[in-house]
Amino acid sequence: MTSQVRGAQLARLLGQWHALPGRRRSPDYAALAGAVRGLLADGRLPLGVRLPAERELAEALKISRTTVTAAYRELRESGHLASRRGAGSWTMLPGTHRVASTGLWTPLDDRDMIDLGVAALAAPPELLPAARAAAEDLPRYLGGAGYHPTGIIELREAVARAYTERGLPTSPDQIMVTNGTQHALDLVLRLSLAPGGNVLVEAPSYPNALAALAARRARITTHGLAVEEPGWDADLLLGSLRQARPKLAYLIPDFQNPTGHLMPASLRERVVGTAHAVGTDLVVDESFVDLPLDGTVLPPPTASFDRHSRVVTIGGMSKPFWGGLRIGWVRASAPQVQRLAAARVGVDMASPVLDQLVAVHLLADAPAIVAARRAQLTAQRDALLAALAQRLPEWRVTVPHGGVTLWAELDGPISSALARASEEVGVRLAPGPRFGLDGTLERFLRLPFTLPAGDLVEAVGRIAAVRYDLDRGGRPQWREPAVIA
Known about the structure:
alpha/beta, seven-stranded mixed beta sheet, four-stranded antiparallel beta sheet, 15 helices
């Protein structure tokens, strides 16, 4: 059944649509049409949703119906609206665009784009030798059916050993291999969260995790993070747990995405204790735990403070190794792993054996690979920071000591407008609202430092020029969003 947005709801999403940068001299209908495209661009207005009737929207916005009619006509002409007499109008995207693997839309001709929407590195040189070695190992698995719901034993042993070396004793029975960290989160939510369950998340947070929670129709409570270190306000976070008593809390304590904050050990221990007291299960995302920079010493794993099987940890190969290797995992109690494996049967049965063998060989070489990654990221981060300081000194950035992203506070609530305009000069950005709820965070922008330093410096130069043009009043053009990871 097609969902519908009411007039009051769309009016709230549009906000001050007539006063966006560069729109004061535009006709009202053109400004309204552009604002709707902007909502589609940053994901706040879904595809395939039915828009309110013209009269209803006109009343909600306190404008003439003629203006709404003209705006809808412009949206139909640009391919962003499909209408059928007597049935209504639905949001869509132009036919010159395709669906990316994530379900998001991306332009066909984007090979020259500097993509700062994806916070992931290119593959390391060790990947190809690991793939060859994995192919040589494969014959010993070919005599079986190839289904290993919890993962092949070699990989579970390697992951368990890595946890143990970090001070968290772990057995292979406590590990389930998944098709990436996002898949791990989805399986945990299927097992632990009934539709409509209450969940606590950080704000900002990882967009794809928010999407997974939305798919479960979760009722979300947020804990806002400060720009400055340590980010989390201990009293507010623990107070939120005690007051909301959520069924589940999703946290990223190790170089939080997108802020880069690192949760101190003392707060980890208090969070685990409070979660146990109020009956909350913790899902701890460790996607960036392998990437401390500047010699930063990591606190103990959050699960090391767990005595009651309240903490489920998820992680994977995407950030320290390569996003194209879809290998993740869940660390939990052995009974929880078995329940997850049973729940998995209705989803995908098991992860590919060959990919798991590749992961085994990469983890064997992890110390050297990860050390090179850290050096690469440090140099690229410093290049990005220097470029921002030179070209956009008004922006406020806290230097992250790990992970792969900067969380920049801009000099105005322009994140979505800047992202749309930057597309026109060949830079793809992830605007702040993608990392929150209800269209907030317009003063923020996530900037990953996973591309070569030269690309980062060039991107900042283009962004700075676009930022200047916004103030000059040139009307920003609109382009569709692509993958954010």
